[in-house]
Amino acid sequence: KIMAGLQDTALHAVTLRAPWAACLIHGPKRVENRQYPLNTWTGKIVWRNIWLAIHVSSTYKEEDSYVVDDVSRRLWPELKHVDLKDSLRRIIGLAHVSNVTKDYQDAVNHQSSDEAGWVDPGSRYYWLVDRVISLDC
Fold first, then answer.
1. 122 pLDDT higher than 80
2. Gap between the Cα atoms of 92 and 135, Å rounded
3. What is the residue-averaged pLDDT of the chain?
């Protein structure tokens, strides 16, 4: 049932650092800030409706975790802490990017204005995520 609607769908992947991957898959973060559009392995730019496997990088910086914990506590006090040190170099979930935009306000509206702290005004592109599936590896 979880994979319904994924048949005949090409699956692509993106690598994120551990705390940011956790916020996307296990938390309410729904905007991925990027300096580039979403490209597939064919080199084609995709603007909407694509599933991405979320791969956790082997890079783990403790200071990133402190930033994420601080922002998470302020924005989502009910969010449980997820330690991904054991999940480095693994795919932890799937994220559906419904749209890619260059418009900061579109990204803020998608994330919701109460949680807009995750939207970086310095980004050139915003990947808007509308669904996630945790693989609970």
1. yes
2. 5
3. 81
How many whole angstroms separate alpha carbon 70 and alpha carbon 88? Answer: 21
User: Beta strands of 1-137 (E only): which ranges?
Assistant: 12-16, 31-34, 38-39, 45-46, 50-56, 91-101, 125-134
The residues, any chain, with a CB within 8 Å of residue 101's CB and separated by 6 or more, are 107, 125, 126, 128
- The letter for the amino acid at 1 is K
The Cα–Cα gap between 72 and 55 comes to: 21
Residue 80 burial (CB < 10 Å; 0-12/13-18/19+)? exposed
- Tell which residue, 39, 51, 35, 41, has the closest CA to residue 98: 51
pLDDT, one tens digit per residue, over 100-112 is 999 999 999 999 7
d(CA 129, CA 24): 9
Closest CA to 52 of 109, 4, 9: 9
